[in-house]
What we know:
Layout lengths: L3 E4 L8 E4 L15 E4 L12 H13 L3 E4 L12 H20 L12 E5 L12 H17 L3 E4 L3 H6 L3 H14 L4 E6 L16 H14 L4 E7 L3 H10 L5 E4 L5 H6 L7 E4 L6 H12 L3 H8 L2 H8 L8 H10 L18 H14 L5 H14 L4
Parallel strand pairs: 3-4, 3-10, 4-5, 5-6, 6-7, 7-8, 8-9, 9-10
Antiparallel strand pairs: 1-2
Amino acid sequence: MSGTTVIRLPGRPDPLAVRCPAWAASHPVPVSRRVYAAAHVAACPDGTIDWESTLGFREHLWAHGFAVAEAMDTAQRGMGLSWDQAKELIRESAARAGSWAGAGGAAVVAGGAVVAGGAGTDQLAAGGTYRLSEIVRAYAEQVDVVQSAGAQVILMASRALAASARSARDYLDVYGQLLREAGRPVILHWLGEAFDPVLRGYWGSTDFDAAADTVVELVRRAEGKVDGVKLSVLSAAREITLRQRLPPGVRLYTGDDFNYAELIKGGPDGHSDALLGAFAAITAPAAEALQALDAGDGARYDAVIGPTVPLSRAIFEAPTFNYKAGIAFLAWLNGLQPHFAMLDSFAARRPAGHLIRVFELAAAAGALLQPGLAVDRMERYLAEAGHR
């Protein structure tokens, strides 16, 4: 598809020209970086899961070379997606991955895992405190679901553990038991309080360096059971510090949706791999940039990935945990779901002014893949929001 479509946006004196980007329709799996995209959940207007759009979006990610991090916070885990729904989502996504690969899609993504699934403790009632043994059992139940589906395990940060732990040792004990029973190396998930304020002080301290001490000790004790650490604290300096402390062979998966471009590119001190919600919003340009990185073309990487950063920073601006609305909005604009609808009416969490800015930045980043459709849907949104 080619051509340019023009739209007038509120607050913008001149019309915005939305050009069709020249990205490839699909991309091979990157070889120089391991990359997971955390995917969202599409909903029907009645608030139920739109399964075909949700699973079709995963195919969109696989087609661009990304593995899928399933049932994570991007999928509204703990903010609209229950454990029972997450369980079904993990199983359905893993099954779709198998059929998609069998039909000619990439059989291997991210070192063998087309799908990695989040295992947490959210079957426990929110707001309570629990014995550590109860938390271990809840985690173990979810780990079994993920492993039984054939997916890699991501040990998600636990609100129940954050509320119940009294020291760093409690974290070491809980995670240590889980790692000993894991069937294959897992990804540890360190989610900062910007993404979930309930997790403040995770790993037993509000001081980053002290918390990092606990994580590094856990990884060293794990004897190869940790594939990597997914860090989402929105600080490039802290990420680099932790990355340099991890034992050889243990990856640092950036979850920094502000600074991912520089962290993935890296430098003399190494680079980060990635597990990002942002990839669900910038799939095609990010895949193009990663291919440039594989080819050793740093200038091309910078030119393609650079314009996506202002878009991602807008989507993830405070309150950061509302970022899922921007991802679903772009999926709708790109024709990847028929409605701008989310579980628990989450789409209403971002005001019209925010989404107008997301549209404008998405156009600049080449993240609007079908300009005519995107403009038609944006004009419909503006009319419904009272801007037409």
